[in-house]
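Reopening this ticket.

The earlier resolution said the output was attached, but the attachment link was broken on my side. Pasting everything inline this time so it's all in one place.
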Amino acid sequence: MIFSGIAIVAAYLLGSVSFSVLFARLFKGIDIRNHGSGNAGATNTLRVLGKGPAILVLVLDICKGVLAVWLGRWLAPDYDWTPALAGLAAVIGHNWPLYFHFKGGKGIATTIGMLATLCFLPSLIAGIVGILAIVFTRYVSLGSLLFVTLTPVVLIIYNAAGWHDYGTAVLIVGIAIWALAVWRHRGNLVKLKNGTENKLGSKSGGKERSLG
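Inline output:
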């Protein structure tokens, strides 16, 4: 249990490293949370800093989720809950980062990393649907929400069909991640309903919340 606690705390601290904030300070000397959509994530990095930094932020944020899960596996290999909770802790750290006054992003990129590590095939299926939604609508928030919604649904189908048992811990944490993402995207849901959500590539300064 001690090593489980260490893994979860370490994962939170890892998740608290906000690369979008760091790169904005490094490249432009600004706080990205005061520019564009105000979100500390990859999509706002694209808007404020450009494609190169945005891709780097996206990859690094995904890696936070991957590494968090593996920290749990390395430090507590006999406890199924630790990798899942460590992944969740990394997402919480990204959303409420200790180092940046608890003001972070939405955690979708980090969620991609942790879910892909915990349950690759279900997250891949959900991810394909999410990507297609972004391609056809250019609403990153819509694709993000579809991804976090469909992953636990596909997990349930896999478990019920007997194709693969990913375990109770992964399913419950997947549902928790879905609830967290919906809460963080509640403003986007209203805008999607009203048809006022910003699209990918938009130069508007509106509050688009997506891959953060």
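Reporter confirms the inline version is readable. The chain has ten helices and no strands. Residues 2-194 form one domain.
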